[in-house]
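Listing S7. Sequence submitted for prediction.
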Amino acid sequence: MAEATGKLSRVTELVAALRGRIERGEYRPGDKLPTEPLLSAEFGVSRTVIREAVAALRADGLLLSRQGSGVFVLEPPQPAYPMLREVDQTRLSSVLSLLELRIAIEAEAAALAAQRCTPEQEEHILTALAHLRAEVAAGRIAAEADYALHLAIAAASGNPRFVEILTMLGPGVIPRAGVGRQPTADPGYLAALDGEHMAVIGAIQDRDAEAARRLMREHLGQSQRRYRAMQMSG
């Protein structure tokens, strides 16, 4: 059962990552999706996970398989959740409202992850953290890798609804994915983010639900304070 749950979470996270790239225009209508070996190497998942994620996106009308040619991106259909998808994530006021929502959702997801996380899910969280660190070390904004880490924690809650809500919101909920003025080049800022992530993960590893809830709230609350200060500075 734990193996099946872990596989499901990886499929869900890959679907969210690929969907985000399509919606942001990184994969444009008519583009051919990277091959299974390339996607498998990039995301660190098996080809079975790749196929199931592609099948899910085909069912959503985002991909089309052509025998002998590959998998191609289709024009995205009208979003199923326009009120959330149409939030202007380049505005600091929108970023702050999304962070409030995330605190309500992700603090409880982290607490449940501390209670229910399987060894495989814990390994997946650590893999996501390592990928995020590699992206930051390479000088990238790394918003998608940050999002994948939060998805991995949500998946470890054992409640797929948390993952569904974060997937609905999309990678744009990571503030630096949309806000133009961002402190991502500041080593102190990046070190603080890494420390906050490690504190949450440590509480999950210690199976301390109260600490995981509190530390996730503090992590997202710190983001609120950072971006509110940007808003007030004009």
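Caption to Listing S7: primary sequence and predicted structure tokens for the chain studied. DSSP finds ten helices and two strands in the chain. The mean pLDDT is 84.
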